[in-house]
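Need Homeodomain-like domain-containing protein's 3D structure for a figure. Predict it.
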Amino acid sequence: MSTTPGIKLVCTHDGCEKRSVARRLCHAHYQAAWKAGELGQHVKLPPREKKNDHVCPDDHKHAAASTCFIQHQCRCTPCVEAHNARERNRSKQKAYGRFDTGLVDAGPVREHILKLGEFGIGYKRVAELAGVGTTGVRTLIWGRQDPGDRYGEIPKRVAREKAEKILAVQATIENLGARQSVPARATHRRVQALVARGWSLSKVARLLGWTVENFHTMMRRDMVGAATHREVAALYEELWDVAPPRETHRDKIAYTRSLNFAKQRRWLPPLAWDDIDTDEEPPVPDEEGAVDEVAIELAIAGEGVRLRPAERRECVRRLHAERWSDGRIAEAIRCTSKTVMRIREELGLGAFDQTELRARGAA
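Structure prediction for Homeodomain-like domain-containing protein:
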């Protein structure tokens, strides 16, 4: 058979008498000639054979998306009808100038996911909160993970509905994972406010399902789990305006001791805060340089006592006399090392040789 284009040929396949150019042979003869390599390179590939007897697996999403019709080559009645309806709607919207692909720029969505990650909300947690697939969120960060030429390619567009769901996830403690650590200041403030209302630490611990020993340990930590923060916040919202029970003699004793305990440490009640999470701690008035010896002793012992400026200076003076370093003093009285250094310089106290302090600590 000649492969020169334009030559009239007679198709002899099964008695076919059709005369045509090389690319217009009957379908069966055209397929046989193409497989045998008898057609030139300029001739387009043969048409795809139709599979009318195709049956879709049960896990295919029939008629729900174009993936089943286009990629899986499904030709069941629901998929064909849904595909035809989509194509008719697409042509109509294009004709009216209202065609919308439903995709938006993926750049802002990716930046939002990265900011959430910096706050401590991982991509799996983002997907869980947004109600979308984990793979799609991961692809927006690190690109496609399936092997092939497009490996590592970051999508430029994303479905509008998915983008709106992801952007709705905010960087808040409530959205953190249960084991993610957060600063304990807000948790401690809530517990202290409940104690200032008369709820003892033991009662608060039991209401949270904690042992008293573990609860006291948590009150000395700088970081707590996000789940602990949420549990304490929920209990605080329930009890901040509720007085503790005082029907029995033991309850009355616990109530009085809690009030005295909070007063000695100058813990603030709930109404002292505008925003218990973000407010700066209100200053304790300095009554003409007066100091409270009990507060000083509690602060030196490591208790979370709010000190007046004169009391803080007295703590620095006494601990400096014990040859404590600035960092150790700052940890005891709950402030920064720079604050201790400024107070020490104001009092005219010199710094200690760090080598000597380390040697004494090792001894």
